[in-house]
Amino acid sequence: MTSARPFLDVSGLAKRFPTRGGGETTVFEQVDFTMDRGEFVCVIGHSGCGKSTILNILAGLDSASSGAVVMDGREISGPGLDRGVVFQNYSLLPWATALENVVFAIRARHRDWSRQQIRAHALSHLAKVGLSGGAEHRKPAELSGGMRQRVSIARAFAIEPRLLLLDEPFGALDALTRGTIQDELIRIWSDTDQSVFMITHDVDEAILLADRILLMTNGPRARIAESVVIDIPRPRARDTILHDPAFYAIRNHLVEFLTRRSRELAAGAAGAGTGAPRTVRFGRDGSAQGVDVVPFQRAAR
To answer: Does pTM top 0.85 for this prediction?
Structure first.
């Protein structure tokens, strides 16, 4: 069942930057969406629509020009350990080992824990992402790109945030490593009650991972136009999801939005409108339905 109040409520969000001539550029405006606890939401849109800026606002690393972000009934006004962030560039301390990077974050989150508790917690989360047997004692320069990203993910989960924010975390990885870490991310997330907000340019990745996909129009003055519900049952696997009747219908819908309608909506050709995005749901036979409200129900994992 859906609670009366969403876990995350983003309303009227806008970001404007001053220009040299004394005017201003609006990157996005009237961004409205909600997330429920335990939901995995991906956002897709072309470069320049402000996806990363929205994520930074959710993280408290940037501020909106207008609008509000409320999480668990409290407005976000700065960084906090109730949110964990994973960037594409890893953002690890270069002088510290993988273990020390995770320990550093846990120590900030659990100041009353003993050194033994912190170390055990860090080693447990590194093991969950496949980093043990000596790899945990290497510094970032001694790790591959995929291993560095595993450290980032372990660190983010280790502080047990209520909201995990992922900014294209797999964009720089090769396909095989990407698939492995996707599986590890889903496995860890499945055992928690954490909500995940993830930016990706990969349509297939979004369908594989998400409960819902938010589609943004092109910038400037971008907005979230659609919220596409992914009803494909979990657990999902790359080698079997292709055979689901809804997969190609959803994929074609997303690709068509990115190649045509994101531009048309941005230009006002199809009537941009304001307020909450239109919700789209696909039936088990792959047929699309436009609906006003789709209650979030956490699927069996």
So the answer is: yes
